[in-house]
Amino acid sequence: MTEAATLPKTAPDAATRHFDVIIVGAGISGIGSAYHLQTQRPGTTFAILEALDDFGGTWRTHTYPGIRSDSDLYTFGYRFKPWVGPPIATAAEILSYMGEVIAENDLARHIRYRRRIESARWSSDKKLWTLEVTGPDGLETYTTNFLWMCQGYYRHAMGYTPDWPGMNDYKGRIVHPQTWPKDLDLKDKKVVVIGSGATAATLVPNIAGDCAHLTLLQRSPTYFVPGRNENDLANTLRQLQVDETWIHEIVRRKALFDQHDFTRRSIEEPEAVKAELLEGVKMFLGPDFDIEKHFTPRYRPWRQRIAFVPDGDLFQGIASGKASVVTDEIERFTETGILLKSGQTLEADVIVTATGFDLSVLGDIAFEVDGQPLDFAKTVTYRGMMFTGLPNLVWVFGYFRASWTLRADMIGDFVCRLLAHMQEKGAKQVEVALRPQDADMKIGPWIDPEDFNPGYLMRGMHLLPQAGDKPEWRHTQDYWTEKDVFPAIDLDDAAFRYS
Fold it and tell me: To the nearest whole number, what is the mean pLDDT of the chain?
């Protein structure tokens, strides 16, 4: 973090700014939250503080070839803004969609770019958050009654790369997709992409044609869903000249129903779902490809995220011979490539580490509550969005098994309802606390590793809040239930403490 003492001060008349609500982040969550606040709470003063120089978050920072969504845009898009493109969209298409939301709702005037929050201090005496912010001209101070954290959950500046032996010996270039260099030329190069998730599945078909050869190196396989990047129901409704607002809602509901049923089946009949997923891969790779070794995961479906592969492009690249798959573990890097534990050597001019990211809890901001530094890991979460001992703050953390934006929309409704309730009660402060009936509740990790266990979550679990074994005190990851529960949350329940 930047030391405040070394930063130049802004002009006195610009040094302090106050808003009823400050939204942190102008990504998919922040822009949606601003829409809900402006629509449902007209007259509320608010600002969006964004560390980058433009909106978009992930879709702005990730520039690797082929960057696209791994959720369908009928559910990843906002409920209030119809999506009219292909279900799986490129970053450019998503940015264009977000730009339309900003323009149509005059949100640009609320966004303050190049504002990185260094610290956030809550005062129970003043009922205010005070934010120290690094701006384009130095240190700025903001105050707000309510903080709406929409900054996401991972560090944008740098991705996660394991520390393999011999990396310093390697004479080629090591690249992480999260910081893709503009000057990278892969023409006629031997390239190894390390990874097995959605990023690797996106990169391989988009760069394989440029390379002399591309090898996808994975320690263990991942489940994928290959299919056409079309929505037949949407196409039919358009042929019938149904209004796009209706199409968006109908297709969205059908997609959500299908996703819920798929999740249920993944848990209740995992072997049948596994067979269906692998059959989809076999359709592209044929009977002679070793599906068992390279595309059969060790875990049941949906214990980690399942990415959609539009038009099976990953598997088409492998079937064509432009790319190959190796499933093995890394012994060490060498001067010219990678030595595997099997003894095989992969020669590489460029190694791409599509190995994930690091969690960033509440934007790595230094939080204090009444002069005491906040240890986020010692709080207990209320439905994955509020935290014991942390007043006037809500965090948007989306779904793993459904689109992130679904929860951003629901939390938008909740926050607006909470703000209205506080106004009716004349309350300036709200926080959540365990109730008398929760005294003997079992407290555990943010999420059960037996339920969902991707690497980034397991590496960062110690940073996240604790959870109880009651649905109110955990992020259940269950959209199908929460869509009915959230609107019915009793804001006068004993879990809410007003003052």
Answer: 92
CATH (domain of 289):
3.50.50.60
What integer pLDDT is reported at residue 340 of this predicted model?
Answer: 97
Run of H or E including 319 = helix 313-319
Look at the alpha carbons of 30, 31, 34, 39 in this order and tell me if their dihedral is positive or negative. Answer: negative
Q: For residue 458, what pLDDT is reported?
A: 77
d(CA 337, CA 168): 12
Q: b/e string for 54-91 if b means 16 or more Cβ within 10 A?
A: ebbbbbbbbebebbbbbbbbbbbbbbebbbebbbbbeb
Whole-model pTM? 0.93
Per-residue pLDDT tens digits for 40-81: 999 999 999 999 999 999 999 999 999 999 889 999 999 999
Question: Does residue 115 belong to any structural domain of this protein?
Answer: yes
pLDDT tens-digit profile of 344-373?
999 999 999 999 888 888 888 999 999 999
Quick one: 348 and 386 in the same domain? no
- Please give the radius of gyration of the chain, using alpha carbons only, rounded to the nearest integer: 24
| Cα 91 to Cα 470: distance, rounded to the nearest angstrom | 38
- Residues 6 or more apart whose Cβ sits within 8 Å of residue 3: none
What are residue 40's phi and psi, to 5 degrees? -90, -20
Residues in a beta bridge with 140: 133
Contact 203, 65 (CB under 8 A): yes
On the question of pLDDT at 9 being above 60, the answer is: no
Query: Quick one: 348 and 369 in the same domain?
Result: no
- Contact (Cβ atoms closer than 8 angstroms) between residue 385 and residue 394: yes
349 with 267, same domain: the answer is yes
| Angle at alpha carbon of residue 379, lines to 139 and 454, rounded to 5° | 90
**Residue 382: alpha-carbon gap to chain centroid:** 19
